[in-house]
Design a protein that fits this description.
Elements: H1 2-16, E1 33-35, E2 42-44, E3 49-54, E4 58-59, E5 70-75, E6 79-81, E7 84-87, E8 92-101, E9 111-121, E10 124-135, H2 140-149, E11 163-164, E12 169-174, E13 178-182
């Protein structure tokens, strides 16, 4: 009886306990700034500095570099406004070679000059300003020494080619104001309750029927009086 009573109490306690719901928490997505054509309250001003780096080596070696040739660069540090990214890290940048001088006789060294044109970010082309240049090591000292001893030798002495290596840093600046629209922070959806797992109620076996007591006669049958 005690075991049956304990099981019954346990079932009643489970039935009276409140249902438990697990709540799913969804972290809000990071807002992303959008570049817009119409001027607004949020503006990334012209003159803002942007760190770039070259995406290819630029050199006068081989004498193949030409004025007007486009060169590839990229944004080395993301540009942000009020905590939101406007120009992402790695955005492609285009530059242009404006002057080339190849190395030559009499110790003349190579020279490269170029300018930054624009960056592509969030589907927009933004004008930039900035320049890059390099010049080789001149061979003037060697030329002077060669002329002092053998005048003809100076003619064959050359400087070195100019070379801007891959990944070289380049400083640039915005050449125009950039209007920015900030996306509103998304509202986290209401937590969806998860249905509590149904608990099976154990069946209670009915108590065994108590056998009826057998009536025992206390009178000796031999002493009973028989009536004719």
């Amino acid at each position: 009886m005690k075991s049956v009573a304990s099981a019954l109490v346990g079932v009643i306690a489970c039935a009276c306990a409140p249902s438990v719901f697990a709540q799913a928490t969804i972290a809000p997505a990071t807002p992303v700034a959008t570049i817009v054509a119409t001027p607004g309250g949020n503006v990334l001003r012209a003159g803002t500095q942007i760190a770039l780096k070259t995406s290819e080596a630029i050199t006068t070696e081989g004498k193949k570099l030409r004025v007007g040739q486009r060169v590839q660069m990229e944004v080395a540090e993301a540009v942000t406004l009020n905590g939101q990214t406007v120009i992402p890290l790695g955005s492609p940048v285009v530059g242009e070679v404006t002057d080339v001088r190849n190395k030559g006789m009499w110790g003349k060294s190579g020279h490269i000059t170029g300018r930054v044109l624009y960056v592509r970010a969030n589907g927009n082309q933004i004008r930039l300003t900035g320049s890059f240049d390099d010049k080789g090591v001149t061979g003037t000292a060697g030329v002077v020494a060669a002329i002092a001893f053998v005048p003809v030798a100076g003619f064959f002495t050359t400087g070195t080619s100019a070379r801007i290596p891959l990944g070289a840093p380049v400083a640039a600046f915005l050449d125009e104001d950039v209007s920015v629209a900030f996306a509103a922070a998304p509202v986290a959806p209401a937590a969806t309750p998860v249905a509590a797992t149904a608990v099976a109620t154990p069946a209670i076996a009915p108590a065994a029927a108590t056998p009826a007591a057998t009536k025992t006669s206390l009178v000796d049958p031999s002493l009973e009086i028989k009536t004719n």
